[in-house]
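Reviewers of the previous submission asked for a worked example of the structure-prediction workflow described in the proposal, so we include one complete record here. The input consisted solely of the amino acid sequence. No template or homolog information was supplied to the procedure at any stage.
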Amino acid sequence: MEMDNPYFWNEFELKQPPLVTLQVEDTGFAKNVFVVINRFLQQLSEPEAKDFEETAALIGRLMARRKNSFRNMPGFRAVCKLNSALCRLLRLDLARDLVQFRGALPDVCDEDLGGAMPTRSSFEYILVRLLGFYHLHERIRECCLTAASYFTQLLRNNFFMDFITLLIAAIAKINKLSSLQASKSASLYNKLRPQVASFPLVAKHKFLAEGQELPAKLEPLKSSPNQTKADSNTPDLVLKPKKVVTKMEIAKLEAKSDVGTVIARKEAPSEVLSKPKFNEEVLATVADAQRFIVRESKARKQNPPPDSCLTKSIPKHEWLAAKTLFQRKMSKDPAKALNIFRKFIVSKIK
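From that input alone, the workflow returned the following structure tokens.
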């Protein structure tokens, strides 16, 4: 196939050569080719690849949302170029070509075993597709840096803060994921490139034109100069030497921390004697109980209740319930009402 363009990997309508297999005597090298392609396809199906597609779709929606108000901004034009590169990457569909080529490899590969192998033209087509995949990610990264630097300045001026914050976050995420995919594709290319000479060549059907050569190696995408400078300015961590604690120091610390044992002491006799005692004979009759209720109710209303108040420890709702029950029972059975009230008071005070 004749291709005069030095950037033939960037051709949109790059024609795929017919997938033809030829019989070869040695198929041992195909095992490594199958393994690295299979590993790369597994990486394309990881959650990171799905995040890349979702973030790319988000950038497309954000671009369409502000295409009128931001149309004259240089940074927005970079976003449009970024969206075009993402769409181009979607149409490239590298995984489909890799799956098709992997299916043409022999099922059993061994140095002493012959088999049908795809031609060198088909293998070179895969490498060219990898080149296009890699350089598209380079383009995506350049657009991300240009757009991010422009919109960061707008963000400092409080211009469309909500929208620009979301846009910068999406650009940063697509830049990170794109760098990962570019590094993986470069690693795959570097592993497949030395195997070109092992595939059978058909002299009449050459994929690369004369004077065109595939690069021997691809370099992973490097970090931006600002990030490199920031990393270089970051001081190295200095580990502090551990302090050696001797047995003598441990013994001193234990002696200082020993403050003795807390002993529960009994109350002083004066405090015990000062507590008022309750005499059951105070509630001998119903009239005594009524006077007791009036006196205690008056004392309980004071804040705080005096020491002479015998029922200050009884909760308010229990005291009200006891008074109400006493008044209800007193009209029917005064003796029973007095007995119940006396038992209640004795159980609460004594």
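Residues 276-349 form one domain. We consider this example representative of the routine output the project will generate in years two and three.
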